[in-house]
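Slide 14.
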Amino acid sequence: MHRWVRRGFLLWAVISLAWLANSVRTQGVPEDVLRSAQNVRIVDESTTLQFQPTRRHDKTALIFICGAGIHPYAYAPLLRPIAETGYSVFIVELPFRFAPLAAHKDEAVNRVRALIAAHPEMPHWVIAGHSLGGALAARLAQTDHGLNAAFVLIGTTHPKDGDLSTLDAPITKIYATTDGIAPVERVMATRSLLPKHTKWVEIRGGNHSQFGHYGHQLFDGKATITREAQQERTRAVLLERLREGSS
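Slide 15: predicted structure.
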């Protein structure tokens, strides 16, 4: 009996891990989105995926931090069109994909700092992130006060542990109404920790998973709009912040 219980538990564990891995697997990304073209050059490195426009805006660029378990490729359809308008885009992958330990989250934040340090010619940044990536962007907003940056927090209930209410930097919070990972009520519960000037963007009918191109995450809600519509709205907000930094 004990042997069968152990076997059943192991089978359940294997199936659960396989399902989890499949749920965050990149899906539906057209091949040409990840190919260099005349107007955009792809730089695929170990910790970042970069979209470098041939004719670049020199005043601001975008750093986007991945969500837990999500590969940078999954955000390519959302972010490549931004590079096609002339803004450099840097997608930062989390250590070990999930950044499971505090040290890994620190490393992810340091990857962003290293990118900024490597581009002293760029006077302004938009730092964005999805889910855990949004939490790490909020951490940067709290700790790195010297950054000339705007912050866009996407599909995240953070900040939860840090008070950003006195921050002068522009902050945008994007949330989706059927998001089961970052539900609206939990997003709003931390509203007092953000500045009064925070711009709030609701994506009605969107969920958590459709901010990227990957499977349906456990506990996420069912979207009532298309992935393309949700990402188009998100991209418009990112472009708005970038244009503000270019003016």
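Speaker note: The two ends are 71 Å apart (CA to CA).
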